[in-house]
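The authors assume throughout that readers already know how a fold can be written as discrete tokens. For illustration, here is how one protein appears when written out as sequence plus structure tokens:
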Amino acid sequence: MDTADSTSASTPQGPARTRKRGARHAQSASMADVARLAGVSSQTVSRVSNGYAGVNEETRRQVLEAMRELGYRPNSAARALKRGEFRTIGVITFGLSSTGNVRTLEAIATSAAQEGYAVTLLPVAVPTQDEVRGAFSRLGELAVDAVIVIMEVHLLDAVTISLPPHVQVVVADSDAGDSYTVVDTDQAGGSRAAVRHLLDLGHRTVWHLAGPEESFAAQRRTDAWRAELVEAGREAPPLVRGDWSAESGYRAGLVLADRPDCTAVFAANDQMALGLLRALHEQGRYVPDDVSVIGFDDIPESGSFLPPLTTVHQDFAEVGRRCVAGVLRQMHLDVPERGTTLVPTRLVMRESTAPPRMDQAH
């Protein structure tokens, strides 16, 4: 046994020598080597490497086995230069603390993967013009074919941005207007439906727990709330503002609970509605018997609130799909597009809204 082990270790055909030779071979293996081993053309190897359809399954299997045997890995950078694209979409966003941003990013990544694209994320720490410029400058150093910007604050209309050459841009959730392709939820339509629902139930007016001032979505929802009340001939109560968090909703709820004339509240998102529900409960104002509450987003947990929350549903998956479709269309046409596409919302009826008590009705 000892002699055999020693001979094997010192023989040129031994395992150690074989591994070294295999390692050198893997490093130098080319597409032509794979083609010879698989018995196919280099063009067929290229088609398999790039995932193109139209290759016979048996041929594809032979090529993949040859790649594994030789340790061949396609050179993605070389392929990108040859094709003129990296199959990567850059996403710029102002942080991931809000549910809307997270779900929009998730939808973009899912849609991009379905189209065979990866996503490179560039979070912007502070929503300033310099940070935005810096993010776009960094994109010039990265291998991305297009950019999706999740920008819910009022910046794109005020900042001068130098885009990397040949990179197309789609903006989600912004007031970028006609300067870019914009994909957004129908913020105004959803908000009007929420207010109209509460008025139709018989409430004299509707209070509004708004999002932060710098948010485009919050401004759209506030404007629509006020417009719907004006059209109905109702007076708009004083605005109460939060910051999207449940904690800010709780603080606002403590204020609203002391207002006996507050019988209906439209919260600009579901997290603030959650904090509002807690504050009203603690102050002895029951929902929906004393106060009706309606939210916006329809997060997965909203049906498990106590009571289950009536809310406006946003189709984040459709927003992501349209963002990806928009940048890919621009890439293939090699021309920018302008204008806004609105994704419809719908009202989801649950148990947090009801007609006011007889002594509260008008």
Confidence is low (pLDDT under 50) at residues 1-26. The first strand starts at residue 88 and ends at 93. The radius of gyration is 29 Å.
